[in-house]
Amino acid sequence: MKKINNKGFILAETLVVCVFLMLMFTMIYTNYFPIIGEYEKREVYDDVDGKYVAYWVKKLVESDQYRLEFNNSVADESLIQSSIRRVNSMNTNGYMRFECKDVLNTEGQRDICKNLLNSLEVANCDQDGNSCEIYITHYQIGAPSGTNIIPNFKKTVMDNNVRRYQEFCNPGENDYNCKNDFFKSCCVRKGLGTCHDVDAESIQSTYVDPTEQVFASEDRDEIARYCKDLTNSRVFSTQMKDYILSLPNYTYQHASTDSNFRVIVMVHHTKDFNDYYSFSTMEVSK
Predict the structure, then answer these.
(1) What is the pairing mode between strands 134-138 and 95-97?
(2) Do 156 and 167 reside in the same domain of the chain?
(3) Does residue 103 belong to any structural domain of this protein?
(4) How far are the Cα atoms of 100, 162, 171, 268 from residue 167, in angstroms, in the given order?
(5) 282 and 154 in a common domain
(6) Residues 6 or more apart from 131 whose CB is under 8 A from it?
(7) Considering the domain boundaries, does residue 9 fall inside one?
(8) pTM of whole model > 0.85?
């Protein structure tokens, strides 16, 4: 009797099974690997460390030394002007930036503020606790589908058309003057006495520090370029934009208290050889 040769059939069957398995694993990889990456990204959204930072920022905002509304009862004219600008930003764009310079300097609260923000590693804070990535918003940050709110903070973030200097404009102030004032104040904060207009082709500056050492010209130019870039930069980074747009709209049905505001914080973790950002938000009872 002649034996049937099955070797060719078995080889073909093996190849078919291998191809099937390759296709199956390819589909799994292409469909689920992005989900894993998204999960890893979400790990830095409202994590424990971020919530801890947001809690202490919330306490600063809720303190008696800080005013969210317009306040002309203080003697410091700069605080009155800052209050006007912050309220204008809130009414126009749906947010204001929290900075330690806006905290009343009673009982050392301003020093407590800057030391706290720097120790918590809030992103982009200068040594005085200003320019930080801390935003105060209305409780409701976006509009449910089919409805609208004004101002719509999520729309502000989505469009991302607000420039850094515009946060400090007074109502009705000339745009160029506002831009130039912000640029020059940045130069002063960085140690330069004077800077030419922000749009000048040649930016020159002079400064003598308390030890009478003069900045070298290349150092002055570097500071001036930094301030020019900061002046014209968009407010929200891609990372912050992604986080804010991932949040719910926080309608009042979400509220667990009678809170009218929220804080949103970005932290740059650098301790213990870390180098990553995390984001968090918390409602403010004020």
Answers:
(1) antiparallel
(2) no
(3) yes
(4) 16, 8, 11, 22
(5) yes
(6) 97, 99, 124, 125
(7) no
(8) no
Task: Label residues 161-184 b or e (16+ Cβ within 10 Å = b).
Answer: ebbbbbbbbeeeeeeeebbbbbbb
Evaluate whether residue 30 is within a structural domain.
no
Is the same domain home to 85 and 184?
Answer: no
CA distance 170 to 86: 9
DSSP class of residue 198 equals T
pLDDT tens string for the chain (286 positions)?
455 555 565 667 777 667 767 777 666 656 554 544 444 444 578 888 889 999 999 999 998 888 877 666 666 777 888 888 888 899 999 999 999 999 988 878 899 999 999 999 999 998 899 999 999 999 999 987 777 888 999 999 999 999 999 988 888 888 888 998 898 888 888 777 767 777 765 555 554 444 444 566 667 778 888 888 999 999 999 999 999 999 999 876 656 667 889 999 999 999 888 899 999 999 998 7
d(CA 236, CA 244): 10
Q: What tokens appear for 16 in the block?
A: 């078919």
Residue 252 gets which letter from DSSP? G
Number of domains in the chain: 2
Q: Are residues 62 and 179 in the same domain?
A: no
Q: How far apart are CA 132 and CA 126, in angstroms?
A: 7
